[in-house]
Amino acid sequence: MYQWRKFEFFEEKLAGKCAIPDDVQGKIECCSSGRGKVVIGSDDGTVSLLDRGLNFNYAFQAHSSSVLFLQQLKQRNFLVTVGEDEQVSPQLSAMCLKVFDLDRMQPEGSSSIIPDCIGILRIFTNQFPEAKITSFLVLEEAPPILLIAIGLDNGCIYCIKGDIARERITRFKLQVDGSSDKSQSAVTGLGFRVDGQALQLFAVTPRSVSLFSLQSQPPKRQTLDQIGSVINVAMSDRLELIVGRPEAVYFYEVDGRGPCWAFEGEKKLLGWFRGYLLCVIADQRNGKNTFNIYDLKNRLIAHSLVVKEVSHMLCEWGNIILIMADKSALCIGEKDMESKLDMLFKKNLYTVAINLVQSQQADAAATAEVLRKYGDHLYSKQDYDEAMAQYIHTIGHLEPSYVIQKFLDAQRIYNLTNYLEKLHEKGLASKDHTTLLLNCYTKLKDVEKLNVFIKSEDSVGEHKFDVETAIRVCRAANYHEHAMYVAKKAGRHELYLKILLEDLGRYDEALLYISSLEPSQAGVTVKEYGKILIEHKPVETIEILMRLCTEDGESSKRGNSNVAYLSLLPSPVDFLNIFIHHPESLMDFLEKYTNKVKDSPAQVEIHNTLLELYLSNDLNFPSISQANNGVDPSLRVISGAPVVSRAESNGKVVPDGKDVTKEKDLLGRQKKGLQLLKNAWPSELEHPLYDIDLAIILCEMNAFKEGLLYLYEKMKLYKEVIACYMQAHDHEGLIACCKRLGDSGKGGDPSLWADLLKYFGELGEDCSKEVKEVLTYIERDDILPPIIVLQTLSRNPCLTISVIKDYIARKLEQESKLIEEDRRAIEKYQEDTMTMRREIQDLRTNARIFQLSKCTACTFTLDLPAVHFMCMHSFHQRCLGDNEKECPECAPEYRSVLEMKRNLEQNSKDQDRFFQQVKSSRNGFSVIAEYFGKGIISKTSIASTGASQTGNTSSASGF
């Protein structure tokens, strides 16, 4: 083992002034540590406690004679001691075990205090005969339960288990070696091993190593080795038993001997500290003792020191404490990691440094820093491959730019590529790293590695690089197939299509790819790249749009329940922007859609767009020359009008065939527009399936008279209809329109004839024929008085009196007849009035004789009490009931007259209605006269006449 390197990873603490205080009297027999204290047992029976720095705290008398063994417990501040006390009787041994509670002090006299002794137990009894104690060990199972193992020189182990303070214990014995030679059978070392529920006890004698399984009853013994040891043993942090022999140090596990380490020299003391093996070795050649600290993982000696004769070795306060036979002491502590690494860095022992930080489980950042320094060292020596191997281990902790900057040189591009690959494998690469790696592949022309990097993804589809960056770099380097692969696998359909369309111009393949996508994804891609597709492949693109916007393939499954499904489909309105430079294709698409889908949720917007396309004057269609130069021939005829090119039209040679074609296309589109206006406004709908205001604006802007007339007529704006004819000076159409729209019997507006007469009166040209026809309808429906007709036509200087001579003659004759009829009616009304006045005067001045002998109601003979009314009806009073003030026979008629008058009076309050009747009437004066005649306008009063009662009771009522 001399080839092991030696380092000074430990240093002496307390500046060499560490020693056992003089307050510790007698010879030191035993030591223990724990809970921040060092406990020393002396041959005079005292126990001394030392604080940090081996400063004396206090001492107390534990036993009357010598303290042979002691152990400081970890879970509780208890101290267990084994020592000799005064012998009570010859039959009882003086050897006893005591348990002290160091947290509870009992005053003894006035000068000192001692811990409370909570339990005293005699070790040897009749069942457990006395022998020399050679080893002692305490296990805290579960407080207050203790398991105490006492090794004897006769090869037996006495075990005491239980709560000693309450004297609830059990004893049992384990037989290790039954040899009569006590020098070979003494138990020299003990070690507990607790692994889960398994409780095991190692026992070492000079000629054997045994293992007892204490969880079984009785405990089972297993011999691990036929060779033992005479010095103390130790337990590693991996629960291994450490046994020292002159030739080597052995490690034992539950299944036998494990690794061994051949260290020359006689082993006097063994220990274990933080993964280090502690060993005091006597050199036979020079008679000196050496204290070595071994790092077994890294195969190095962490510290080596020549010492005096060491009697005890402890570990406390993070230090190693060596107590010498002359009561001097050494306190050795481990240096911090930074100091140890600096020491190794100075010697360029980077591999040792790496192994050191890894074996001591340093954090990843510290390990990465060591690897970085090692990489820098190798880089300075121009060992670039090995340097990169170290830098790769720092990924995740070292900033990648630190490494990348070192290897940007073209000669080291292979190393840089390797580093960037590892960076991507660990998912720590940024967009810039992806760009750099792909640039490395393209500069190296390494298509194989490029394929591996891009295509070797797991089945989940998670990428180790930024997709957009990879696609961008591959496109820039003309690796379009790789870029397409990445885009397709990542589901970036828009990028895949961008490459196909913009870089490769493979339009058919792009259309096929869009067709394979889900409808939602296909819709998004068409919106983004539809302009390019429409420009180069309009027919195929429209087919895709039709599949997206209609229910192809689904109608057979859904039957008649398609309305709800249509609302989930994309709307053609969503794709209007892709046709911005191709209105003819848009018109074709919308026509196909409307022919297939009759109840689209977006039909209003679709109809609006179609109207704008149909009625627009400047919609240009491709000519034959354009079609022959690469434009799809299917676009030559969109609206049904044939293409004519510098040819004969109606038998005539035209100077420019394109203008004729454009004119025919316009006429055809206008015809479609008019048909759309009609079809989209069925008679059962109050409002059309398009924006009516927009339709009117389009018709006016593009001078589309037929559409404008239809809309005005449909909206019942008859005056606007005839205004259109007036503006066009279409007298024949104007009269025909008034015939159709001015017939009140068919819901028309007769006032149109008055407007028409006014138009001819202000025309300023000879229109005698038209005026005579108009006067015929005015006279027939009695629309205007003759005086108004004369005044209206007098404004046209081109008309003569002969135009209206016959009309005036007929009107005068009619008026004469009406005057004669009115005169006769007046005479009749005057006679009736005089008769009524005489009757009223008679009622006021003369008595009325009631001669009815029967009741009008029941037709029985009239007897008293009876009621007689002025209307000459008589009733029994019992037949009238409570209604004695009006005649039951005449009351309904009288009430109906009153109710009619009240209604007329109420209606007269509505001035708008009154004026509307006056305005719409042929003779407004007659309406006013009617209101006066009904007594609605003038204040009227109802005259009531008195009633006389005959017999016991009588009453009167109106006529």
Q: What is this structure, in a nutshell?
A:
The chain is an alpha+beta fold. It contains 33 helices and 33 strands. The chain has a 5-stranded mixed β-sheet with strand order 1-26-25-24-23, with no helix packed on it. Strands 2-29-28-27 form a 4-stranded antiparallel β-sheet, with no helix packed on it. The protein has a 4-stranded antiparallel β-sheet with strand order 3-4-5-6, with no helix packed on it.
Describe the structure.
Keywords: Coiled coil, Membrane, Metal-binding, Vacuole, Zinc, Zinc-finger. Involved in regulating membrane fusion at the tonoplast and the prevacuolar compartment. It is found in: Endomembrane system; Vacuole membrane; Prevacuolar compartment membrane. Among the domains are: 28-267, 7 Propeller (Methylamine Dehydrogenase, Chain H), CATH 2.130.10; 336-409, Alpha Horseshoe (Serine Threonine Protein Phosphatase 5, Tetratricopeptide repeat); 855-912, no CATH class. By secondary structure, the protein is an alpha+beta fold. The radius of gyration is 62 Å and the shape is elongated. Mean pLDDT is 80; it is low at 553-561, 621-655 and 939-959.
Known CATH architecture of the domain at 28-267: 7 Propeller
Largest sheet: 5 strands, mixed
Mean pLDDT: 80
- Pick out the low-confidence regions: 553-561, 621-655, 939-959
Q: Give the CA-based shape.
A: elongated
Termini separation comes to: 150 Å
Report the C-alpha radius of gyration, rounded.
62 Å
CATH superfamily of the domain at 28-267: YVTN repeat-like/Quinoprotein amine dehydrogenase
Helix content, binned percent: 40-55%
Taken as a percent bin, the fraction of beta residues is: 15-25%
Sheet with the most strands: spatial strand order: 1-26-25-24-23
Helix/strand-derived category reads alpha+beta
Q: What is the tally of beta strands? A: 33
Number of alpha- plus pi-helical segments: 33
Overall CATH class of the domain at 28-267: Mainly Beta
- CATH fold-level label of the domain at 28-267: Methylamine Dehydrogenase, Chain H
